[in-house]
Each structure stands twice: as structure tokens, then as C-alpha cells.
Amino acid sequence: MTSLLNIVDLWVKFPTRFGEFTALNHVNLDVSAGEIHGLVGESGAGKSTVGAAIMGLLQSPGYVSDGEISFMGNNLTALSDDAYHKLRGQRISMIFQDPQTSLNPLLTVANQLMETIRQHADISHNDARKRAVELLEVTGLQDVENRMDEYPHQFSGGMRQRAVIALALCTNPELIIADEPTTALDVSVQKQILELIRNLCTERNIGIILITHDIGVINEITDRVTVLRSGRVIETGDTATVLGKPEDDYTRALMAAVPRLDKRLHRFKNIVSDDEFSAEDTSWRIDDASADYASEWLLEQSALQQSKTSNHKSESQLLEVPQISGTSRAPGASLSDGEPKNIEPKNSKPKNSKPRQAILSVSELAVTFYSGQPSWFGKKEGFKALSDISFDMQPGTVLGVVGESGSGKSTLAKAIVGLVDPSAGNMTFRSETLPPGSARTRSHPVRRQIQMVFQDPYSSLNNRKTVESIISEPIEFYGLATNKQEIRKLVASVLDLVEMPQRAMLKYPHQFSGGQRQRIAVARALVARPEFLICDEPTSALDVSIQAQMLNLLKDLQEAFGLSILFISHNLAVIRQMADNVVVLRNGRLIEAAETEQFFSSPADPYSQMLLRETPSLRFLQSPI
Amino acid sequence: MLKAWHRLAHENELLYLFLNNRVAQLAALIALLTVGGAALSPVLSPTDPYDIASIDIMDSLVPPVWSDGSDERFVIGTDDQGRDLLSAILYGTRLSLFVGFLSITFASVLGVSVGLMAGYFGGRFDAFVMRIADVQLSLPAILTALLIDGIARGILPREQHDSLMIVVLTFAIGLSLWVNFARTARASTFVERNKEYVQACEIMGMHPVRIMLVHILPNIMGPILVILTVDLAVAVLLEATLSFLGVGVPPNQPSLGTLIRIGTEYMFSGEWWIVIFPSAMLITMIVSINVLGDFLRDAFNPRLR
């Protein structure tokens, strides 16, 4: 294979008012025709900058300060803007991450394709249309002739991404740069798109640079891979070699941080810690504040509560894995997956202890959303976000909730915390009825007992408040401590507990990275001394190594305080690492409920089996960790 | 100290942009001079234009010092009643700014609280309030102000007119400007309301008033600050217009608008200074405040940078 694109010693710099920031530092890359070259790294590693540098689309004021990008023998860095404009689109194309924004919503798919085709080739309207049909057929879109005249919003995410790929193919490019092409897609669609990219690459002999943060995707389709970190190439080579026998410590750590689908690990090991704090940060301490102090404070209360609610149980007892039972009862017999879902009959006894009261029990829960204002005439019609959800959760366990986007996972969480009102069904929390959100009084005890950790650490913390006031707010609000000194000490201790320097309390959320913010969010949830924690995709916005740290932290906290956690994720591998029991949701219905190990070894429902099959496996990850 | 200043200038986005924007600095300087001059008018001005006893009708229509027939005491001349124009302008600016600040405070408090509630609660309250705002927006602000002014004049007893005029004026201008604040606050609250930190507060069971004031309000202050500056200029202008039309402040306490109105009567008979100097003052002040407002808008909106 001849070398299609050759990058030698590329430096990209961004001048800022704090001095020059080096985005790419001595990067070498070599892509051949008919090869998929993966670029993998965490956020800020410079993956997208490589793509932008090749396309000549570096965001101002960034510039290539040194090095050479040669594409089929031409040096791209020496090209004029005009020449670059011709090359772009004609010979190098790009596929973007979000098909929602990379298509113009005001033009039909056909028009967008034809516009691009006619921009680059002097052909008639009809010929361009024929060409567009061909291209869409290549990408595997069904019923092309009829659907190509629709607008992007009428397409599903996967179909849109196919249209974007067709758009990239319009001009028969020799090189395609795909920047996170499947990140916005569900696993089942992801698999199809990846297969499509693979086929295009081999059939048309196109070189593809696949930029992604997902090692599973890299593993699935790339021939060769380059690992980037902070703008430097860490390792490069055949995918099998790099992933199977990583040479560099960073690559090894990165692989170790990827949650595994095939077995449950107690903890993630050898993870990179790039949360480096300055000495100033770590040496600043409040007297007597420590993680131990925080855990004592948190435990003292939970012990109190335990003795109040049921016969007193020791901490170790709380740690054993209790049973779950889940049922999905649809009205009538017309349920497609008719077999009973009871893994364990509700009143069957757990192996070695007397039956325990479920901490949370949900029965026949349904949530319906009405679009806009309910109509004044006729019956209200709405979108059923959840219907007939029933499950029990034992205290001290982690229940994983899995499902694709739109399956109702978050709605379930919102119904439990009272942000949305269920339209039917009951919830009981610690054998007391849990009133729906609008009927839940402001001083209801569950307001404190159930806490939530949100998905997006950038919007879940109020940017105008210091970390200290964010964390102390629940303490003051619930009246858990009143002495100002005491509160300050608690805040510092809890920060210690979530592995943040105590000095963080003086800063504002925007001064922290996503992972650190998420730790602060966990700290805020913890100081309320909750018994029940809802984590709604707590790691999906984080890099894998940060995700691993976060999952470790959550596991530790769960074990230490015997928390019950409802853990929502779309990522099966994460669920496998975290959950004791799993429920699968699809289109608002409960598909399957099972114990985690059982679920992953033999999923009962065809949909669950499909989900498991489509999740990118890590076949190269054989090394024992 | 110097080091701390350097660090602040480097880290604070707003300050950094300000220090690198000559136009904004110039505008700030001018605005500061006008506001300062107006605030210190009792100290700075040579005479007291409100003091009828000190005014001599024989001094009326004296031209500025560089013209023939001028008087040393009146640097930029006098008006038709013999008031020193410089003192009148300084006092007039003070009055204009006072009414402007007062009415903009009234408008912002009203508008922001209505907007916050509309954005937070949504539903019927939102629909109701925003329709009122739409209706009001279809009327020019000056009409609203005139209407309220007229009603107030009709209701209030004649002898209290002069003493209550400033209150009425503030009320009239404030009521005609609240819509901008309400709409901006509502739109920003809508965005913030759906963020997860607000949901976290709701889960805790925090009182909605506390959520709005403690959590949402600081997060929507950016756009509101912009409107505050831009609308301050509008309020001052509105006051000047009302005074120009003769329905504003009482004539014995001339504001800039009153002075301009008096000036227009003499414009074509050669006494140009009575209209030119107050107008120049008004324009300078409005332009500098507007430039500052634009600077703030750009600074708070990264996409415009």
C-alpha cells in the first residue's frame, strides 16, 4: 500500500493571552489508501486538531508552526487558500460527530447532496440526482427515491449519519476524516455505521482517519491506531499490537480504565491520574478536617436510621448482595415478550437471611407527557414515556438501568425524585408510599433521603457559587449542622472523601474539569446523608480514565455507607462493573430484570441479547488486568 | 497590590476586554465625567439655577464668553430668564440622570421579577403576563409614558403636581420600559430552569422563591446588565422627551429636556447656545452610555467577539 497521507513532525500552536498553547507537539502520522487509521485519546488530546490541520480548517488563531502534511505527494501546509478550497471536499472529506447539526435542516437531503455534487462536477440537474441516488444506496439507506426528498428532521439519527456519509462520498474523495462518527448514536446503529465505513474503505480503497475516544470502536474496525495524549503521539502501530500488547504506560492505563463487558472487576486498577493539584492546593487544610471525619459523620447518621427503621444491621450485613425481583405486567395478554420476568418471586427468601423490606418498590408506574397544552376538546393524547414499570430494590444494592436513548431511563429517575408526576402506579420508599412530585411536600423526609447525581457536570453545579456554598447548601437546608465552623469542617472533610483537595472549596465550579466537577456533585449529594442515590449517566460526559476513577469512587462510597444506588447508563460495560441487578428498558417498557451476572451470561430477552451483541467487544483486551 | 491587580486584569474576562478596548474606555471616561459632574453639580456650578432670588432678568440671553456682549460670569451664556446655562445644564443633567436611574431601577425590579416568575412557572401565568407585554410592546414607549403621565395629572390635585411630578415621571418611564427586562429575564430563566443545578434544588424541596433569587438570578444577570445600561440611556432620553413636550419636570427645575425646549424657541433668532449646549450634553451622555452597553453585550456574548 502506498502512503496516502503523511504527516511529519507537525506542530500546531494557539496563541492565547496566557502565552502560546501547543496543541500538537511533534505529531507523525501515516495513512495508506484502503486503511482505517484510528486516532484515539481523551478530551484535549488533540485528536480533532489533527483532523482540522489536515483539512486546513484550524480554528483561528491556531496555526501550523512547523512540520509537513503531505497528501499524495503535495505539501498541504504550503497550499494557497484557493488551492486548499478545491482540495477540500474534492479529495478530502469529513464526517462530523453530530448528524443533527451537520445537515442543513432547511434543505432536503437530496438538495444538499446535489448541491455538493454540482459544486464539484459540471453536470446537469438530472445527472446529479441520479448520482445522489446511487450514493445514498451505497450507504444502505432504504427506499432512497422516496425518502431523499425529505428533510433531515424526518430521518432517524442513523439515517442522518448515512446521509452525511453519502455527502462525504459525493466527490469520490481519497481520504475521509471521520470525527467521532458514531458517538451520538445508539449501540445498535453504531454497529451498522461502523460496518458501512469499513465496507466503503475496502471497496473504494479510501483512506479513513477515524477520530474517537471510544476504544471499543477503535478495536472494532481500525487497522492501525495512534494514541494521542496532550498533543503528543504516545504509541502507534497495528491495532492488534497496540491494544493487545500496549508498550506505553499510558496506553496500558487507558486500556485498564475501559470498563469490561466480559467480567466484573472489583475496582479499576492502574489508572492514570491526571488530576494533578498544585502543592498550594493540597497543603491548604482546615483543622481536623479529614475523610475519616466525613465518613464517621455520614455513618453515625445512617446507623441511627438503620436502627430506627428495621432491626439493627451491621455494616457488613448491608454489603451482601440481596435479590431483586422485577415484573413487567402489561394490561391484557398482548405483550410481545409474554414470558414472566420474575427472576425471584417477590416473597421468596434471600438465601441466608430473613426477607428484607425493599427500600424502593415501584409498581405499574407509568408516565405520560402531553405535548404542549392539553387540548380543550376531546381526549388528551400524550406520549407514553413509561408504562407498567414494576421492580423492587433491596437496601444496599446497586440497580443498573439500561436502555437506548428515548427508552425512558431518565424519566424513571425523575419520577422517583419527584420532578415529573407519574400518570399511574405506585412507588413505595422504605415501606411508605412515595407521593408523586407535585403532592410531595417541601419538607417530606425523602427529599433528603433520596439524592441525585446528574449526567452533565457542567450544568449541574451553579457557576455563580463557590464550591463551599454549593456543598454546604444541603447541610444548612436540611439542618444537619448549624455551627458555621462545623459546616466548614464538614465541607472540607467531604471534599477529602471524594478525593478533592480541601482548598477546592474556595473556588468556583468553572475552575474544575468535568471529572472534578462530578466529584463535587457527588459530595453535594453525600452531605445530605442520603440512603438512596440516583446516578443518571454520571460518567457519560467523562473520559474513560476519569470514568474509571469516578466508578471506583462510587463503588467505595457505596460499600462504605451501604448506599442503595439506582445507576442509569446506556453503557452495558459500565453497568456490568457497577450493578448488582439490571433492568432493561425499551420504549418505556421494562424488557428484562435480572441479576447482573445472570443477565450478562444469558440474557433472556431477544432485545437484551441484541444489545449485548452490538456493544463493541474488546477482543484485543486479553491481557490480565 | 500591583501584582494582585495584574493577576486580576489577566484572569477577569470582563476587565481584560475592557482594558483592551479603547472605545469602551473613552465611553466610560465620558460617562464618568457626566455622572460625576451631575452628582457634584451643587459644588461645581457657579450659581444655583433653582434660586429665583439670584436670577436677574436683566442677564437674560447673554451669549457665551467668546462672543460680543458676553458676561464674564456666564461662561456659556444664559437662557431667556437669565439663568447661567452651565449651572442649568449641570443641575439639569443631575435631574435627568436621577429620574433615569430611578425609573430604570423601578423598571428592572418589576420586569425581572415578572420575567423570573414567568420563566420559572410557565403555563398560564407566563402566557398572561407575556401577552400584556406584547400589547405594551406594540405601543411606543413615549405613548405609554404620556398616557400614565396624563392619568396621573388628572387624578392628582393640582397643588401637588410639582412636588409629585418626579415620582409620576419615574413611574411613567418605568412602566414603559419593564417589558424589555421581563422578556430578557424570562428567556434566560427558561434556559437556566432546565439546567440540572436547578433540578437539584427542586429535588431538595427548596422554596421556589429561594431558587429564583439565590440560584437563577445571579446566572441571568449578564444579559440583564446589558439591558440595564442600554435602557438607562433610553430612560434619560424619554425623560428629556417628556420634558421637551412640557409634561415632564416642573419648569422651575429645568432638566435637559426643558432647556432644549426653551432653546428651540430662540434657535432662529440668533440665541443658538441655549439649544446647542444642553443638546450636546444629552447626546454625549447617551452615546457614551450606549457604547458601554454595547461593550457589555459583546463581552457577555462570546459569539460576537
Descriptive account of the structure:
The complex is a heterodimer of chains A (625) and B (305). Chain A is of the alpha/beta class and 625 residues long. Chain A has a domain at 284-331 and 338-372 and 380-614: Rossmann fold. Helices cover 36% and strands 22% of the residues of chain A. In chain A, the strands form 4 sheets. Chain A has a 6-stranded mixed β-sheet with strand order 6-7-8-3-9-10, with helices on both faces. In chain A, strands 17-18-19-14-20-21 form a 6-stranded mixed β-sheet, with helices on both faces. In chain A, strands 11-13-12-15-16 form a 5-stranded antiparallel β-sheet, covered by helices on one side. Residues 307-354 of chain A have low confidence and may be disordered. Chain B is mainly alpha-helical. Chain B has one domain: MetI-like fold (Orthogonal Bundle). Helices cover 73% and strands 0% of the residues of chain B. Chain B contains 13 helices and no strands. Chain B has helices at residues 2-11, 13-19, 22-39, 41-44, 85-121, 123-138, 141-155, 161-193, 196-204, 208-219, 221-244, 256-266, 273-300. In chain B, helix 5 packs antiparallel against helix 6 (123-138). Chain B starts with a helix and ends in a 5-residue tail after the last helix. The relative contact order of chain B is 0.14. The interface between A and B is medium-sized, with 30 and 16 residues.
Poorly predicted parts of chain B: none
Element-level helix/strand string of chain B: HHHHHHHHHHHHH
What's the level 1 CATH class of the domain at 284-331 and 338-372 and 380-614 in chain A? Alpha Beta
**Structural domains of chain B: how many:** 1
Could you name the CATH homologous superfamily of the domain at 284-331 and 338-372 and 380-614 in chain A? P-loop containing nucleotide triphosphate hydrolases
Question: Over all CA atoms, what is the radius of gyration of chain A?
Answer: 27 Å
What's the CATH topology name of chain B? MetI-like fold
CATH topology of the domain at 284-331 and 338-372 and 380-614 in chain A: Rossmann fold
Question: What structural category characterises the helix and strand content of chain B?
Answer: mainly alpha
DSSP E strands of chain B, number: 0
- The radius of gyration of chain B is 23 Å
Largest sheet of chain B: none
The helix count of chain A comes to 23
Q: Give the mean pLDDT of chain B.
A: 86
Give me the CATH architecture of chain B, please.
Answer: Orthogonal Bundle
